[in-house]
Write a structure and sequence with these properties.
The chain has helices at about 5, 40-65, 140-145, 150-160, and strands at about 10-15, 20-25, 30-35, 70-80, 85-95, 100-105, 120, 125-135, 135-140, 165. The protein is of the alpha+beta class and about 170 residues long. A hairpin with a 2-residue loop joins strand 2 and strand 3 (about 30-35).
């Protein structure tokens, strides 16, 4: 699996009653950030990801451009309490009109998938997408929102390899 370090701080769960972003640390796993479902900035980021997915992500994936790598999609998995956990799916392929990939982080909740599972992507539950153009991160709308709350050291850990978030 590629670039687990990117996922280290960008897994999140939408919740209905959180007043502020709260981090849940997990030994050996990326932390989870709880984001209230009414968070305007996060909801705007998700809408931007949905609007640009076809034109930017899909086009780049099919282009076979050798400068493009690490294609990942973040998908919302519904939870019984009407909240959702947003999980990154990597190693994305597109065949017969469907996206498929590998779960890139261990879910916090029991959602029927685990780290390393191969899944069909439910594009209707897309919450973000990302790929690298050399060392420039394309997409990553929700990542950019969550990066604002990181310490300088946490940002340095995410930027390993000289990644640049536009």
């Amino acid at each position: 699996m590629k670039n687990i370090y990117i996922i280290a701080v960008i897994a999140f769960i939408t919740v209905g009653c959180q007043e502020k972003k709260e981090r849940i640390e997990r030994e050996g796993e990326p932390p989870v950030v709880l984001v209230k479902s009414e968070d305007d900035e996060m909801n705007s980021a998700i809408e931007n990801a949905k609007k640009t997915f076809e034109k930017e992500f899909h086009t780049a994936l099919l282009s076979k451009n050798p400068n493009y790598s690490n294609f990942t999609i973040k998908q919302r998995f519904d939870l019984p309490d009407n909240n959702g956990e947003h999980i990154w799916i990597g190693d994305i392929t597109f065949k017969n009109g469907k996206y498929k990939g590998v779960i890139q982080n261990e879910p916090y909740e029991q959602i029927g998938v685990k780290l390393g599972d191969t899944v069909d992507v439910d594009i209707y539950n897309l919450s973000d997408w990302m790929y690298h153009n050399k060392n420039i991160v394309k997409g990553g709308y929700t990542v950019k929102v969550l990066r604002k709350s990181l310490t300088h050291e946490e940002k340095k850990q995410m930027d390993v390899g000289g990644l640049i978030y536009e």
